Fold:
Amino acid sequence: MKDRSFQIRGDGRRAVLLIHGLTGAPAEMKAVGRRLHRQGFGLYAPMLAGHGGTEADLLKTGWRDWVGSAREAYLRLAAEVDEVYVAGICAGGVIGLALCAEFPQIRGAAAYSPLFEYDGWNMPKITLGAPLIQAVANLPLIRRLSFVQPHPYGLKDLRLQTLAAQQLQAMIPGALDRMPLGAMHQLYRMARRLEQIAPRIHTPTLIVHAREDDLADLRNAHRLRAALGGPSELVVLEDSYHMVHVDKEHVRVGDLTAAFFDARRTLSAAPRREAIDA
Structure:
C-alpha cells in the first residue's frame, strides 16, 4: 500500500486534520482543503489504516485501527502548531469526533455527511438492514462480500459523475470503488460507540449535510446533533449529494468550515478526556 498522505503548511499557528472517508483516500480532501488553506490554515490529511490498497487490505483492519492512525496523525500535527481542528467526510467525520472525545483541546470539528446508517435514497437494499449487518456481516464468508456504490456515486455534479464512473483512481488515487460488508460492519460499530460517548463531547461542531444525500439520509445529521454534548451548528445543502466536500457546493463547504473555525479560535478547551475505544 502506498502512503498517499499529504501536508501543506499554513500560518504556522493553526492547522486542520483532514480525515477521508471509508474506502476513500486523502486526495478527496484537497478541494475543501484549498479553501481552508486560503484562510491561513495548515493541512494534514493522513491515510487511514488499511486504505490505499485492496479490499483484502482494508478487511485486515477495524475501526480501532482507523481511529488509531488518525490519533497518530493528530499527535504529530499537535506537536507542530498551537491550534488543531478536525474535519472529515462520513466515517472521517465520526473519526474526527472520536479524537475530540479523547483530546478536548481540539478547537473545533466539522463533520461532513455524518453516517449512522446507509439509508440514503439510492442505496442498495443490502445496506438498509443495519441490525442484520451488525449481526452477520463480520462472519468469515459474508464479510468478504462487497457492493459497488451505484450511480451517481454521491455526486450531483455531472462532470464528476462521469469521472467517477470512468476513472475513480485518477480522480481519487488510492480509493476503492467497492465496499466490503466487513468494513461496513466496522463503521457501524464505530458510529454506535461514538453515539454512546457523544454527550461527553463538548468540542464546537459544524455539521454539513445535503438534503438529498444519496447514501445517508438527513436524519443522520439530526441524530448526531442531538447526541453531542457541546455546541453545534447544522447547515443543510440544497445542491449536493453525499460527497459535499467535492460536489457542486464544495467551495461553500470549505468557506463555512473556515469561518466556523475562525469564530472559535478563542474558546477554551474542555478539561475532560474520553477515549472512544475505552
